[in-house]
Amino acid sequence: MRRPGSRAGDFLADCNYSLNIIINTAGTGEYRQLGHESVVGVQEAVLISSAEEVSCVYPCALRSLLIGLPRQSVSAMVRNPETMLCRPLPSSGALRLLLSYVQSTDKMSLDTPGLAPAFATHVQDLVALGIVATRDGKQLARGSGLRAARLAAINLDIGKSLGDSEFSIGALALRHGVTPRYIQRLFENDGTTFTHPSPSSDC
After folding, report:
1. Is 173 inside a domain boundary?
2. 84 Cβ partners below 8 Å, 6+ apart?
3. Cβ atoms within 10 A of the Cβ of 125, count?
4. Which residues pair with 22 in a beta bridge?
5. Looking at residues 154-162, what average pLDDT do you find?
6. Would the CA dihedral through 112, 117, 118, 119 be positive or negative?
7. What is the DSSP string of the chain?
8. What is the total count of domains within the chain?
9. Phi-psi category of 13—alpha, beta or left, where left has phi over 0 and alpha has psi -120 to 50?
10. Which residue range forms the structural domain that includes residue 31?
11. Has this prediction a pTM greater than 0.85?
């Protein structure tokens, strides 16, 4: 697939364009933009600008998640994001959380007042962590966005583990790279409590 043409003039001068992060969930993709080339594997990502011509080659069947964000939103947390265009972004905890967070909302309605803006903020924070953030940007992203994404991923994991006799808060914490107490605090800060779905609860 090749995206024809490039955008210029006032559009670029105003920086009024989007930066798109593409996360591969299956297969391999080859991306070319501004003289750079990246081969992106499973659970890896690449940052692409909507303002420039891009060439995409898929040697085999591929599934990916594309998230487009206003350039201004990204640059508020990432210094000179254009320097990362078409550079491979290796698999990381932030990218895995981003993918899990977005997938966990697939069947959810965001019509509740305030929910859509909160979701967008969390996604922006995690995208910033998945790229190269400035120190202040990292502090921001490691706050609300990371906590919300971890909570969504943990809730998704709990739902999949219902009825599993081996399930425990310790095993859950290990899978997500946190401590059991951290999980309990996540639920407390959300105004809920952690309820173990199996008889072997150690909460």
Report:
1. no
2. 47, 78, 131, 132
3. 27
4. 46, 66
5. 78
6. positive
7. -EE-----THHHHTT-SEEEEEEEEES-EEEEETTEEEEE-TT-EEEEETTS-EEEE-SS--EEEEEEEEHHHHHTTSSSGGGGBT-EE---HHHHHHHHHHHHTTT----STTHHHHHHHHHHHHHHHHS---HHHHHHIIIIIHHHHHHHHHHHHHHHTTT-TT--HHHHHHHHTS-HHHHHHHHHHTT-----SSTT---
8. 1
9. alpha
10. 2-160
11. no
Tell me the average pLDDT across 53-75.
89
Least confident span in 14-18, 63-67, 99-103, 163-167: 14-18
Say if 92 falls within a structural domain. yes
Please give the Cα distance from 60 to 42 (Å, whole number).
Answer: 12
State yes or no: pLDDT of 14 exceeds 60: no
Question: In this structure, is residue 45 part of a structural domain?
Answer: yes
Q: Answer whether residue 202 is part of any domain.
A: no
What percent of the chain is modeled with pLDDT above 90? 20
Distance of CA 151 to CAs 10, 37, 72, 128, Å?
A: 41, 35, 27, 18
Mean per-residue pLDDT, 18-31: 92
